[in-house]
Amino acid sequence: DDVIEVAAYRDSFSNVAVTGLLPAGLYAGGDVLPDLFSDASSFNAGSYETTGYRVSYSRRLGDHVTAALAYGLTGALAPARDSLATNDPNELRSLLRLRREHFITAQLSAQMPHAGTKIASSYQWAPHNLVTSPDLFHASAARALPGMNLMVRQPLPNTAYLPGKFEATADFRDMLAQGYVPIRTADGRRLLLLQSARSFRGGFNFVF
Fold first, then answer.
1. In 3-state terms, the chain is what percent helix, strand and coil (to 5)?
2. Alpha carbons 60 and 148: distance in angstroms, whole number
3. What are φ and ψ of residue 171, in 5° steps?
4. Residue 35 in 3-state DSSP?
5. How far apart are CA 145 and CA 125, in angstroms?
6. pTM above the 0.70 mark?
7. What is the largest CA-CA distance in the chain?
8. How would you classify residue 129: left for phi > 0, otherwise alpha for psi between -120 and 50, otherwise beta?
9. H helix or E strand, kind and range, residue 48
10. Residue 35: C-alpha distances to residues 134, 174, 183, 200 (Å)
């Protein structure tokens, strides 16, 4: 089946969390929330509003494969320059300006008929100096995180003791480490702001 979607929207964000790799001790006064499972932190970048539009197209390629493509134009935050003069977090907030940019997303998903393995691979292109993801609430078949991503889900054999099902998952995000934006601090150190951190997550799900 072929599916075409056209959408226009208006987004309003408050206390926007921008992911960053910050030098030790920088912005320790409550503007940064550390990630307990990585070296990254979330920086409070303030608020902004934007409008945008999106056109997406998806098509089934046989019984087990679906391809999708999306194009859009929207607003996202990007730094106006690559250096800071002070250690005041308000300077970094004022440095992040709203820009209107194009983005393109491609996604291919498949399910192996006998093993039941589900694989979804996606790539989202946007200018690499953006520090927030474009079109955060994109809900069509071409929805994807920034950069190159791969998700694998493998159902596991049922057990006689539990009514639900188990599955193993492997989630590779931003595999090419795109969208890492360096900024030089006032004392010469470097902080990185990024749309999406390169990461791997694996685990087990219980589906009931």
1. 5, 55, 40
2. 21
3. -125, 110
4. coil
5. 10
6. yes
7. 64
8. alpha
9. strand 48-60
10. 22, 17, 20, 15
